[in-house]
Model the fold of this input.
Amino acid sequence: MPKFSSISGSLLMTICRRMACRNHPTAVRFYCNRSTTKRAGPLTQYKDLVNQGKLQHDPDQEKVALELENLLGRLQQYEKDMEEYHVKLAEWENMRENERHRLLVEEAEMKHQGGMWTSMNKHRSKFTEKLMFRKKPENVEPGVGKWVSYLNRERKLDTVVGARPTAPPAPKGLYLFGNVGSGKTMLMDMFYSSTNGIIKHRRRYHFHEAMLEINVRMHQIWKKQVEEKQFQSSISSWIRNLPFDSSVKEWLAEEEKYKEEVQFKNILPAVADKFLFDGQEEHRGASVLCFDEIQAVDVFAIVALSGIVSRLLSTGTVLVATSNRAPEDLNQDGMQREIFLKFVEKLQGHCENILIGSEIDYRRHIAKQFVDQNHFLWPLDGSAGEDFQKMWLEATNESGMQIISETIPVMFGRTLEVPESCNGTARFTFEYLCGRPVGAADYIAIARNYHTVFISGIPTMSMRIRDKARRFITLIDELYNHHCRLVCSAASSIDDLFQGTEDGRLFDLESFQFETEIEGSKLRRDVLAEGSVSSVGAPSGIISMLSGQDEMFAFRRAVSRMIEMQTPIYLEGVRSLHPYFQRQLQHS
Done:
């Protein structure tokens, strides 16, 4: 007999509609609407849920909740201090830019009055001219003169304008690590929800989403640089209106262009400066980054995370992160060791490392209270298929909308065909989602667009289909991170879904690669070059060598999350937490 829910899909959807986040926090992921609801502090949330019987008390979790509560208190003053700092910084930057323009104009006047752009051959003897050419260094690199001029000008600005305002010291963040189901993500999300209304600039990323966002930002900066190069002949209005001849104006334009090139020479700091802010946002106040599942899966991840996270920490961003490993243990294979060690040093200098040492998987503990309420239907040779179809029809008929096929945007101009969809609910086969060369970007697009996802025909996974298994794990991560409702038909129970690890590593590079256009691939090689990896050697350098322990952690995490996703308490949060419903609230 197949194992299936005794509660119909219709009734569960009704439950989701009636539950409001402020009254019914979700188990394990107990945070409320990430953007619109102001919440109590993490410790208060945690104690309330324990008192309600929705969480089992754990001393390690309570300790972390207390640390996060204390950090939240420090952030309130830090936000005010950073607002004052950014006002002073903006004034300093304006003064410095105005002074820099003044210095440039002075230099331009000297060149103009000195007749730098007239024919000097008429006033030189051939002997002097030959002497000048003989003494001209033959090995001077192009741009060295501009670099010297740029540095001299910066030194003058330091003297005239004064030193950059000193930023207030940032509170130390937290780096939480521990076993599957120990509550790391739950506690981080409690903290994140608590920062609403306190910290304006805040972002929460899962590893896959962060890597894709980095690629998008890199691509945008690269395209901007290309566009600017196409208009090199254009001259800024402030230069065009100066009373100099065209040659002097061209010199000024070249100096301005060189300054921009210096500032954009390293693309990662430029990405970091935009990582937490929307295009129109003004950067004033503190910033917080919550980063779920920090990993060091390949060279790109190490180089990109090191450059961006280090930059954010150096400029005052407070980091709260989760991982299965301590920082020093992230890079088991020693890839780009020098860069990685600097990254670890930066993390340890700006975060308190806290081990959540519980061996209990609390997702399983909570799920035991709801053993009869299951959306994971198995085995395939029973009546699971019929029950799966029944739940699909209940979910789609209730909406009163027609089932259609549609195309959704992914990233970098790509799209994904969705064979069956209806009013925020979509249906796929396992082979369609995991048997083709798709990756995290596709799964994020699905998770953002559909609050309920049906997946049929999930096989028992072993090393023989390790590519499909790895994609499936990535898919579950994204559905969970976006708080989707998941309905499955499978060949075996959740606990028996992943079998065997002796005959090879269950790892597929495709699931960690990030789809880009042709020029996007060039960007990735450019960043890898910073890690001393040539463009020729990049593909082999990217290949991750995850240990068996890493793989087993990924399996356990996927199983643990699927178990939690079957509980009605998790389902209560779909309506309030999923982006589909949040978009509806914003437009209502």
Remarks:
- The chain is about 50% helix and 10% strand.
- Residues 1-28, 30-37, 116-143, 500-547 have pLDDT under 50 and may be disordered.
